[in-house]
Write a structure and sequence with these properties.
The chain is of the alpha/beta class and 567 residues long. 28% of the residues lie in helices and 16% in strands. It folds into 3 domains: 205 residues, Dimethylsulfoxide Reductase, domain 2, CATH 3.40.228.10; 156 residues, Rossmann fold, CATH 3.40.50; 147 residues, Barwin-like endoglucanases (Beta Barrel).
Length: 567
């Protein structure tokens, strides 16, 4: 699906900040839509860069409660009969069960959960229902919470019931054939029967769709041999210690392996534990291709690989050759491009004559595809679901033992679910917002980029800062039940009171000292996850921010005064 921003009367940005997306294509589209008069609403715990640039209506929300907000809006839409009655009657299952469930999610009750004023909830729900094309722009801001999957389902159900699914200006389902037809014909034989992938027992629905092991369950296999031992690991283009909860857990995992190899351009924190580090090339040294929608473009090599560096593909095929199955794959970067183009109507020589790329013939967009038999593989009207309907009550979730409705689960660690803990850690923790000077955990060793933001920041509201005697620029500890990390404070009105945003991505051994010593995942919890996806919770924990006394500000290991929590 994609947001039809160009035709939208209302654009709702929910859990996303297109200004820092990579690439920021939607940001440019939203700014253009705003100039032509489209209304923009941003639902986020921060008044982010996109909200400020578009002068959007900002609904500040407590992290992790997006599902409750969507259910309150559904409450308004259903009780005020603003929903698409014909769609509900003909194409959905579970509507009456949803009606009964959302009856308890009144705007007044949900204001206490989300911190979004009840009248703003009503106003936004009515705006979505009445717009001639309400467009949803969302991303990972909804995922990393205890009910991330169900939160997203609630939001998408809201869009469907208000008549904004697959209509001009709404959330549109792509036409088959709209994207460039990359060849997928050459497949390696499936692995032989054997033990199930790690994590399938705990997250069976994740495995149903992903057909892979669950990375969050790897420590169980490495350290406990459960369900079977994992003794070797290959890490390619990833940095686990800087991106997964509990870095010390992963250090123990790496130390417990018999063999580990890392493929990367830099000596990452993971690479310090590797038996072999294979240096990877940069994009300037690679030959490859890019597909963006209907366009295919060759990316030519700019310079020859430096030193011993090789592309990820050359490393992979060399290992495959040594193991005796390299013949199953294209044998060079150029052959990869030729293989990708097979059956597309283009060959490599033709594509190279068009440096800006070649585009496949356009496919005429059609809407409400379920009415036309354009969604199901059998060509019949309806949706590609077991019932053939839009499943508000999901038969697949029910079959796997989950609640079929888009139920809201209060975050496992929150002011409401753990009030005693909240007295010690009274602020709601959030991390993951992107900044302009890095890319995840990369580039903290690039002087020109470090000038843009030399230190990792924690943003907090003036009310919370004043209560703690904190000003912008102060050295502070961000503290959770799991540990503490040193940050520099940034005080701003552009965040919900009671919530903080801590920069992620620190912890690389190549980073500047401030970033090297600031791994946000010391603060997160590997066992606190979404029960369906198994994704860790990065966005709805509890914390406090403690000012480091000026005389200790230069120290890197000063104790926290525990009396500050005795409020």
């Amino acid at each position: 699906m994609y947001p039809d921003i160009e035709n939208a009367e209302l654009i709702v940005i929910w859990g996303d900040n297109p200004a820092t997306d990579s690439p920021p294509v939607n940001y440019q589209r939203i700014c253009q839509a705003r100039r032509r008069g489209a209304e923009v609403i941003v639902i986020d715990h921060r008044r982010n860069e996109t909200a400020r640039a578009t002068q959007a209506k900002w609904l500040g929300i407590r992290p992790g409660t997006d599902g409750a907000l969507a259910l309150a809006m559904l409450h308004v839409v259903i009780t005020e009969e603003l929903y698409d009655r014909s769609f509900v009657a003909q194409w959905t299952v579970g509507f009456e069960a949803l009606r009964a469930y959302v009856a308890a999610f009144t705007p007044e009750r949900v204001e206490q959960i989300t911190w979004v004023p009840a009248e703003e909830i009503r106003r936004t729900a009515r705006a979505i229902a009445r717009a001639r094309g309400a467009c949803l722009v969302s991303y990972t801001g909804l995922e990393y919470t205890n009910s991330g999957v169900q939160n997203i389902r609630a939001v998408l159900i809201l869009w469907a019931l208000t008549g904004n699914l697959d209509v001009p200006g709404g959330k549109v389902i792509k036409m088959r054939g709209a994207d460039f037809p990359i060849n997928q014909s050459r497949r390696v034989a499936p692995p032989p029967d054997g033990p199930p992938p790690i994590g399938k027992d705990r997250y069976p629905l994740y495995h149903l769709y992903r057909r892979e092991a669950h990375a969050m369950e790897l420590p169980r296999a490495i350290l406990q041999n459960d369900p079977y031992p994992v003794r070797a690991m290959m890490i390619v283009g990833s940095s686990i210690i800087t991106s997964y909860p509990n870095p010390d857990l992963w250090r123990r995992c790496f130390s417990n392996l018999d063999f580990m190899v890392v493929v990367d351009r830099f000596l990452t924190a993971d690479a310090l534990y590797a038996d072999i580090v294979l240096p990877a090339t940069t994009l300037f040294e690679n030959q490859g291709y890019m597909v963006y929608g209907p366009t295919f473009q060759v990316r030519e090599r700019v310079i020859a690989p430096l030193g011993e560096a090789r592309s990820d593909w050359e490393i992979a095929i060399a290992i495959a050759n040594r193991l005796g199955y390299g013949h199953l794959y294209p044998s060079s970067e150029e052959e990869v491009i030729r293989w990708a183009l097979e059956g597309s109507g283009f060959d490599l020589e033709t594509v190279r004559r068009h440096p800006a790329g070649v585009t496949c013939p356009p496919v005429a967009q059609q809407y409400r595809k379920w009415e036309r038999g354009l969604l199901r593989r059998d060509g019949q009207p309806g949706f590609e679901t077991p019932s053939g309907k839009f499943e508000i009550a999901s038969s697949i979730l029910a079959a796997y033992g989950y609640d079929p409705l888009p139920v809201y689960i209060e975050p496992k660690e929150s002011p409401l679910s753990t009030p005693e803990l909240a007295r010690v850690y009274p602020l709601v923790f959030n991390s993951g917002a992107r900044i302009q000077s890095d890319f995840r955990s990369q580039h903290h060793n690039i002087p020109g980029l470090l000038k843009m933001q030399p230190e990792p920041l924690v943003t907090l509201h003036p009310r919370d800062a004043a209560a703690r005697g904190i000003r912008s620029g102060d050295a502070v500890w961000v503290v959770t039940p799991r540990g503490r990390v040193r940050y520099t404070a940034r005080v701003s009105e552009d965040i919900v009171p009671g919530v903080i945003e801590a920069n992620m991505g620190g912890g690389s051994p190549l980073a500047s000292p401030a970033w090297r010593d600031c791994n946000v995942n010391v603060l997160t919890d590997p066992d606190n996850r979404d029960e369906i996806s198994g994704f860790p919770v990065y966005k709805a924990l509890l914390c406090d921010v403690v000012k480091i006394p000026p005389e200790s500000a230069d120290g890197r290991d000063q104790p926290v005064d525990s009396s500050i929590h005795a409020r």
